Automatic annotation (TrEMBL):
Residue ranges of every copy of the Rieske domain listed in the record: 5-100
Pfam families: Rieske
PANTHER family found in the cross-reference section: 3-PHENYLPROPIONATE_CINNAMIC ACID DIOXYGENASE FERREDOXIN SUBUNIT, FERREDOXIN-RELATED
GO molecular function: 2 iron, 2 sulfur cluster binding; dioxygenase activity; metal ion binding
Top-level taxonomic group: Bacteria
Protein name, as recorded: Anthranilate 1,2-dioxygenase ferredoxin subunit
SUPFAM superfamilies the record matches: ISP domain (SSF50022)
Gene name of this polypeptide: andAb
């Protein structure tokens, strides 16, 4: 298995305080811009598959819109049980584009 950077859109497609859901291969991703940084994690909540990209972001955490499970954006750790329930991915900006590093 190799990893490579995949273009997921223009920098301006994710403005500060917003997020998008996108599909890379068969991986649904939620990509956030918060506090001037980009974060990418599994787009489906570890609880029952809720749409994490639609969650509210506060203090570096996102809250699932379905039942309120909360995860750290940078680690995918669930804030109540402190377990890394959500996979996270590296994300960067290059030449006005946003790229995620993902297996493929
Ligand atoms: S599906 Fe996310 S908290 Fe239930």
């Amino acid at each position: 298995m190799t990893t490579h950077w995949t273009d997921i859109g223009a920098s301006e497609s994710i403005l500060e305080g917003s997020a998008i859901e996108t599909l890379v291969g068969d991986q649904i991703l939620a990509v956030f811009r918060s506090g001037g940084e980009l974060f990418a994690m599994d787009g489906m909540c570890a609880h029952q598959g809720g749409p994490i990209a639609q969650g509210a972001v506060c203090d570096g955490c996102v809250t699932c819109p379905w039942h309120g499970w909360q995860y750290e954006l940078s680690t995918g750790i669930q804030t109540i049980n402190r377990q890394p329930l959500m996979r996270t991915f590296k994300v960067r900006e290059s030449g006005g584009r946003i790229e995620v590093e993902i297996d493929g």
